Amino acid sequence: MRRREFLLGGVALAAIGLIGWRFGFGPAAVAQAATGSFPVSMSEDEWRARLSPDAFAVLRQESTERPYTSALNEEKRAGIFHCAGCDNPLYSSQAKYDSRTGWPSFYEAIDQSRIGTQTDYVLVYPRTEVHCANCGGHLGHIFDDGPQPTGKRHCINGVAMAFTPGAATLG
Protein backbone atom coordinates (compact mmCIF):
# COMPACT_ATOMS: atom_id res chain seq x y z
CA MET A 1 0.00 0.00 0.00
CA ARG A 2 1.35 3.37 -0.92
CA ARG A 3 1.51 6.27 1.48
CA ARG A 4 -1.24 8.23 -0.36
CA GLU A 5 -3.68 5.29 -0.17
CA PHE A 6 -2.86 4.79 3.48
CA LEU A 7 -3.50 8.46 4.31
CA LEU A 8 -6.74 8.62 2.29
CA GLY A 9 -7.96 5.44 3.99
CA GLY A 10 -7.25 6.97 7.41
CA VAL A 11 -9.14 10.14 6.55
CA ALA A 12 -12.10 8.07 5.29
CA LEU A 13 -12.19 5.99 8.48
CA ALA A 14 -12.06 9.13 10.64
CA ALA A 15 -14.94 10.67 8.67
CA ILE A 16 -17.03 7.51 9.00
CA GLY A 17 -16.33 7.47 12.74
CA LEU A 18 -17.43 11.09 13.18
CA ILE A 19 -20.59 10.54 11.15
CA GLY A 20 -21.35 7.42 13.18
CA TRP A 21 -20.92 9.27 16.44
CA ARG A 22 -23.23 12.05 15.32
CA PHE A 23 -26.00 9.87 13.91
CA GLY A 24 -26.26 7.23 16.58
CA PHE A 25 -24.14 4.22 15.68
CA GLY A 26 -20.89 5.03 17.47
CA PRO A 27 -19.89 5.87 21.05
CA ALA A 28 -22.34 8.80 21.16
CA ALA A 29 -25.19 6.31 20.74
CA VAL A 30 -24.54 5.03 24.25
CA ALA A 31 -24.11 8.47 25.81
CA GLN A 32 -26.40 9.11 28.73
CA ALA A 33 -27.49 12.05 30.82
CA ALA A 34 -24.92 13.46 33.20
CA THR A 35 -23.54 10.94 35.63
CA GLY A 36 -23.79 11.40 39.35
CA SER A 37 -26.47 11.74 41.97
CA PHE A 38 -29.31 14.17 41.35
CA PRO A 39 -32.33 15.19 43.46
CA VAL A 40 -34.69 13.83 40.77
CA SER A 41 -33.80 10.30 39.75
CA MET A 42 -35.88 7.79 37.78
CA SER A 43 -35.38 4.51 35.99
CA GLU A 44 -35.07 4.51 32.21
CA ASP A 45 -38.62 3.14 31.95
CA GLU A 46 -39.96 5.91 34.20
CA TRP A 47 -38.20 8.58 32.09
CA ARG A 48 -39.60 7.01 28.89
CA ALA A 49 -43.13 7.10 30.34
CA ARG A 50 -42.75 10.72 31.45
CA LEU A 51 -41.11 12.21 28.32
CA SER A 52 -41.96 12.31 24.63
CA PRO A 53 -39.64 10.18 22.48
CA ASP A 54 -37.83 13.33 21.25
CA ALA A 55 -37.45 14.74 24.77
CA PHE A 56 -36.17 11.37 26.02
CA ALA A 57 -33.60 11.21 23.21
CA VAL A 58 -32.27 14.68 24.06
CA LEU A 59 -32.54 14.73 27.85
CA ARG A 60 -31.55 11.13 28.61
CA GLN A 61 -29.43 10.10 25.57
CA GLU A 62 -27.75 13.42 24.70
CA SER A 63 -29.26 13.65 21.24
CA THR A 64 -29.72 16.98 19.44
CA GLU A 65 -32.96 18.16 17.89
CA ARG A 66 -32.86 19.45 14.34
CA PRO A 67 -32.31 23.22 14.15
CA TYR A 68 -35.34 25.49 13.61
CA THR A 69 -37.80 22.76 14.68
CA SER A 70 -38.63 23.98 18.19
CA ALA A 71 -41.49 26.41 18.78
CA LEU A 72 -39.47 27.73 21.73
CA ASN A 73 -36.90 29.13 19.31
CA GLU A 74 -39.52 31.74 18.30
CA GLU A 75 -40.96 32.25 21.81
CA LYS A 76 -40.91 36.01 22.54
CA ARG A 77 -43.20 36.32 25.57
CA ALA A 78 -41.97 37.07 29.08
CA GLY A 79 -41.63 33.94 31.16
CA ILE A 80 -39.47 31.12 32.45
CA PHE A 81 -38.02 28.15 30.57
CA HIS A 82 -38.07 24.98 32.72
CA CYS A 83 -36.45 21.57 32.34
CA ALA A 84 -38.94 19.34 30.47
CA GLY A 85 -37.85 16.41 32.64
CA CYS A 86 -38.22 17.76 36.14
CA ASP A 87 -39.64 21.32 35.89
CA ASN A 88 -36.48 22.95 37.27
CA PRO A 89 -36.58 26.68 36.31
CA LEU A 90 -33.51 27.17 34.08
CA TYR A 91 -33.64 30.30 31.92
CA SER A 92 -35.50 33.60 31.92
CA SER A 93 -36.89 35.16 28.76
CA GLN A 94 -34.90 38.25 29.79
CA ALA A 95 -31.65 36.39 28.92
CA LYS A 96 -32.98 34.91 25.65
CA TYR A 97 -31.73 36.22 22.32
CA ASP A 98 -31.74 35.24 18.65
CA SER A 99 -28.39 33.60 17.95
CA ARG A 100 -29.50 32.64 14.42
CA THR A 101 -28.37 29.06 15.08
CA GLY A 102 -31.80 27.43 15.07
CA TRP A 103 -31.94 26.64 18.79
CA PRO A 104 -33.18 28.73 21.73
CA SER A 105 -30.19 30.66 23.07
CA PHE A 106 -29.56 32.44 26.35
CA TYR A 107 -26.59 34.42 27.66
CA GLU A 108 -27.02 33.07 31.22
CA ALA A 109 -29.05 30.73 33.39
CA ILE A 110 -31.43 32.05 36.04
CA ASP A 111 -28.91 30.84 38.60
CA GLN A 112 -25.70 28.87 37.99
CA SER A 113 -26.79 26.37 40.65
CA ARG A 114 -29.70 25.27 38.42
CA ILE A 115 -27.38 23.92 35.71
CA GLY A 116 -24.28 21.76 35.63
CA THR A 117 -21.55 21.48 33.04
CA GLN A 118 -19.04 18.91 31.90
CA THR A 119 -16.67 18.59 28.97
CA ASP A 120 -17.74 16.36 26.10
CA TYR A 121 -15.62 15.13 23.21
CA VAL A 122 -18.41 13.75 20.99
CA LEU A 123 -17.16 15.85 18.05
CA VAL A 124 -13.53 15.07 18.97
CA TYR A 125 -12.76 18.61 20.17
CA PRO A 126 -13.82 19.64 23.69
CA ARG A 127 -17.19 21.36 24.19
CA THR A 128 -18.99 22.44 27.35
CA GLU A 129 -22.11 20.33 27.75
CA VAL A 130 -24.84 21.79 29.97
CA HIS A 131 -27.30 19.67 31.93
CA CYS A 132 -30.05 20.19 34.46
CA ALA A 133 -28.62 20.22 37.99
CA ASN A 134 -31.87 18.73 39.31
CA CYS A 135 -32.22 15.62 37.11
CA GLY A 136 -29.00 15.46 35.06
CA GLY A 137 -30.88 15.80 31.75
CA HIS A 138 -28.83 16.96 28.77
CA LEU A 139 -29.87 20.44 27.66
CA GLY A 140 -27.30 21.51 25.08
CA HIS A 141 -23.92 23.27 25.04
CA ILE A 142 -22.35 26.53 26.14
CA PHE A 143 -20.13 28.48 23.73
CA ASP A 144 -17.97 31.59 24.14
CA ASP A 145 -19.56 33.55 21.28
CA GLY A 146 -22.58 35.10 22.99
CA PRO A 147 -23.54 38.69 23.70
CA GLN A 148 -22.65 40.80 26.70
CA PRO A 149 -22.92 40.87 29.62
CA THR A 150 -21.54 37.30 29.77
CA GLY A 151 -20.16 36.60 26.28
CA LYS A 152 -21.71 33.12 26.57
CA ARG A 153 -24.23 31.35 24.33
CA HIS A 154 -26.24 28.65 26.08
CA CYS A 155 -27.45 26.78 22.98
CA ILE A 156 -30.36 24.72 24.35
CA ASN A 157 -32.51 22.08 22.70
CA GLY A 158 -36.09 23.38 22.76
CA VAL A 159 -37.50 19.90 23.35
CA ALA A 160 -35.50 19.77 26.60
CA MET A 161 -37.53 22.67 28.00
CA ALA A 162 -41.08 23.73 28.77
CA PHE A 163 -42.12 27.40 28.81
CA THR A 164 -44.30 29.10 31.42
CA PRO A 165 -45.44 32.57 30.34
CA GLY A 166 -45.71 35.33 32.91
CA ALA A 167 -43.12 36.92 35.14
CA ALA A 168 -39.61 36.50 33.77
CA THR A 169 -38.08 36.37 37.24
CA LEU A 170 -38.56 33.97 40.10
CA GLY A 171 -40.32 34.95 43.29
Detailed description of the structure:
- The structure is a single chain.
- This protein is of the alpha+beta class and 171 residues long.
- The chain has a single domain, classed as Peptide methionine sulfoxide reductase (Metal Binding Protein, Guanine Nucleotide Exchange Factor, Chain A, Beta Complex), CATH 2.170.150.
- It has helices at 3-22, 44-50, 53-61; strands spanning 79-83, 89-92, 96-97, 105-106, 115-120, 127-132, 138-143, 153-156, 161-165.
- Strands 3-4-8-7-6-5 form a six-stranded antiparallel sheet.
- The radius of gyration is 18 Å and the shape is globular.
- It starts with a helix and ends in a 6-residue tail after the last strand.
Number of domain units: 1
Q: Point out poorly predicted stretches.
A: 10-32
Tell me the strand order in the biggest sheet: 3-4-8-7-6-5
Query: At the fourth CATH level, what is the homologous superfamily?
Result: Peptide methionine sulfoxide reductase
- Which series of helices and strands comes N to C? HHHEEEEEEEEE
User: Main beta sheet: strand number and arrangement?
Assistant: 6 strands, antiparallel
In terms of DSSP E residues, the strand content is 15-25%
Helix content: 10-25%
Backbone shape: globular
Q: What is the CATH topology descriptor? A: Metal Binding Protein, Guanine Nucleotide Exchange Factor, Chain A
CATH class wording: Mainly Beta
Terminal Cα span: 69 Å
> Taking Cα atoms only, what radius of gyration do you get, to the nearest Å?
18 Å
- Number of H- or I-type helical stretches: 3
